Amino acid sequence: MKTEIRNFVAAVATLSLLASCAQTDFLKGQSDSTSAALQNTRVLSDHDIIAKRYENTAKELLVKAEEREKLLQHYEDKSYLFGRRGQDFQAQAIAMARKYNLDAKKAAAQGAFHRRMSEFAKGNNAAAGEPLRQVSSR
User: Fold this and answer.
1) Model confidence over 79-132: pLDDT tens digits?
2) What is the per-residue DSSP string for the chain?
3) What is each CA distance from 128 to 29, 37, 75, in whole angstroms?
4) What separation in angstroms does the CA of 30 have from each of 26, 27, 44, 137?
5) Nearest-angstrom CA–CA distance, 122 and 112
6) Which of 2, 10, 20, 105 lies 20 to 30 Å (CA to CA) from residue 122?
7) Is residue 69, in this structure, part of any structural domain at all?
8) For residue 134, is it within any domain?
9) What is the domain count for the chain?
10) Is the dihedral of CA 97, 102, 104, 105 positive or negative?
11) Using CA atoms, how far apart are residues 93 and 78, in angstroms rounded to an integer?
């Protein structure tokens, strides 16, 4: 009898936990056209914001790469100070400078992409006088 009660309580507790963690967003349904228009307007400004963020990241990465290159020059000029570890420091500085430069190029490319998306969206909106609509995949 006690084990049946314990099993029942455990089952109820488990079901209540699952019910409380369930997502209910699918019940909300479709939003009206005004909120879709506001969302499209927000997307336009998001591309500008994302482009600026990527461009700032690229600038920061280039600064870090320059710092690593200066550090590499220091390691090469004063290699006698670092002994055997000097070559390891040089290799690490070269690798990090290369990585920062590559990441800066990638970030700049992403920034340029989002800048083009923003300009494209602004051009289409200015010409059409209406917000962008998502194209269905039919």
Assistant:
1) 899 888 999 999 999 999 999 999 999 999 999 999 998 888 777 654 444 444
2) -HHHHHHHHHHHHHHHHHHHH---GGGS-PPPHHHHHHHHHHHHHHHHHHHHHHHHHHHHHHHHHHHHHHHHHHHHHTHHHHTTHHHHHHHHHHHHHHHHHHHHHHHHHHHHHHHHHHHHHHHHHHHHSS---PPP--
3) 28, 14, 59
4) 9, 9, 22, 18
5) 15
6) 105
7) yes
8) no
9) 1
10) positive
11) 14
pLDDT given at position 76: 92
Q: Residue written as tokens 């710092």? A: 67
Between 41 and 48, name the one with better pLDDT.
48
| pLDDT top residue among 69 and 12 | 69
Is 107 inside a domain boundary? yes
| pLDDT the model gives residue 64 | 96
The sign of the CA dihedral 21, 22, 28, 31 is: positive
